[in-house]
Each structure stands twice: as C-alpha cells, then as structure tokens.
Amino acid sequence: MTESQYLTAVYAFNYFGPARIKLLLSYFGKAANVWKAKAHELTEIGLPGAKVCAFDDFRKSFDIEKYFSRLSDLNIRVVTVFDRDYPQNLKGLDGAPTVIYFKGNLDCLKANSVAIVGSRKMTPYGREVTEKFSGELAGFGVTIISGLARGVDTCAHKAALAAGGKTVAVLGNGLDSIYPPENSELAQEIIKRKGAVISELPLGYPILPLNFVTRNRIISGLSSLVVVIEGAEKSGTLITASHAAEQGKTVFAVPGQITSPLSAAPFFLLKNGAIMAESTQDILDELNTPVSIKKNQHTIKRAGHQS
C-alpha cells in the first residue's frame, strides 16, 4: 500500500478531520503508522477511548485494496494535500480537506474561478441573474464553482456549460451517488466537458444536512471570489460567504427586490462589507487584481444555518 492510500483510509474515518489528521501525522510521521498504531498509542496521545475503539473497528472492516479497486471501477480518482495535483487554491487554507475524490479534470481549477451560490428556491429573477453572470463569466474562460444543489447551483452549472465553459460541482456526499438524483445527467455532462465533480467524503457516505455546511468551505476555497445570488435570512449561502471572508476572498452580492424573502441574504451581506455586483464587468475587474483581504470584509459575520 502507498502512503497516499493509507492517508485516504485514515481520512475515511469520519472523526479524523483535517485538524486531527495534522496532529496524528505530526506525532506518528506517516499515515501508514497512524493506520497501524496500537490502541494504547492512540489513547496515549489524547484520543477518547470510545473513538479509539471505533477506529479499531473501522480498520478491521475497511479493506484498503478493495476500496481502491472500487474507486477504479467507478472512475473516481483521489488526490491528497501532499500531492502535486491537489488544487492550489485550497493549499494553506485552514480546514482544507486532506483528501479529495474527483471525477473529471482538475486542470480547469488552474484558471480564474468564481463560486456562484444561492437559494434552492430560486425565483425567475434569480434564474435570469444566475444565467447572466455564470454564462458570461464562463464565456470569458472563468471556471464556475457551485454545489450541484437545486436552484441557483444547478442553474449556474448549466449556464456555464451552455456558454461552452467549464464548471466544478462540489458534493456533500460520496461520489458513488449524485445528490440530488435528478442532476445525475448534469454531473456526467460536467465531467464530459472537462470540468469536475468532487467531494472530500468517502464512498458510501450518507447525505446529511451537516455535510452541505462543511462542503461550503471547499466551494469558497476553490474560488477566487464568491458571488451570492438570492438566499433567505437563515441560509447556507451565508455560511459560504462567511468561509470566503475568513479565507480572504472577495464576496459579491447581487441585490434583489426588497419585497422578496430571498433578498435577505444578499442585503445582509451588502450591509456587512460585501461588494454589490451589478454586472459581469464588476467580477472581471476584481479578477484582474490580486485577491486581498479587504478590511470591511472582516465584518461579514458567521450567520444563518442550512435551510
């Protein structure tokens, strides 16, 4: 087994997130040593006894060779944070995933990339604006990043493809299934058109609300900047914007009708340091300048929850 395979196996144990992986590697040196560590060694470094037992059970049931054989059968590839092909936008970010599973081509992430996110319950206005920004940006060679969710995400991916551009979908579940299921064909088209579908979650990982909250940091992390189009007062969209601000990314928000509940998230962001996006040119102008942490973006608070 390779070190990359051992690291993938260790990261597949859900309790070991990026921070714990760093600590384990700093102590044991290699992922292979973590995988082979005795229970008492894991306990001695401060892991709770119940988690050590759970990890022991996990190792007994997890066949690394069979797991990678299944990945190969599904045309799913793996890249770790130590590999040269790991997305550069994610390297160095706090909480960057240790392992990324992907189908397609990660080369599209070497270009300027913009995250377009928003409400699942998209209005006709939201559709019009999403198609405009996503299609026009993709036409200029910008890679569009979103989450393949219903509503704005789906519209952003489709508009990018319609413009002949590339797009990347970040999933909140293992890549052996597509959620929502009606976007299976869209996912295949993204891959076919030299984009990518990615996830940090192992095969078989269930679809849970918390997954979509944590995957949002990857959406913002992969992007040069984030554009928010529609969102309710308590929305996962705000969490993506919070991650972006913490990562030093510029956050744009598209204003909506003041009478629409889905204008709440953009207006909140605009009041708290986001930049108003009136046209695609606003985004292109920002991409032509070095991305920097703007002072007023520190006022963007972590707010809302997944709706």
TrEMBL record:
Residues 78-287 form the Smf/DprA SLOG domain. GO terms for biological process: DNA-mediated transformation. It comes from the Bacteria. Belongs to the DprA/Smf family. This is Protecting protein DprA protein. It comes from Candidatus Woesebacteria bacterium GW2011_GWA1_44_23.
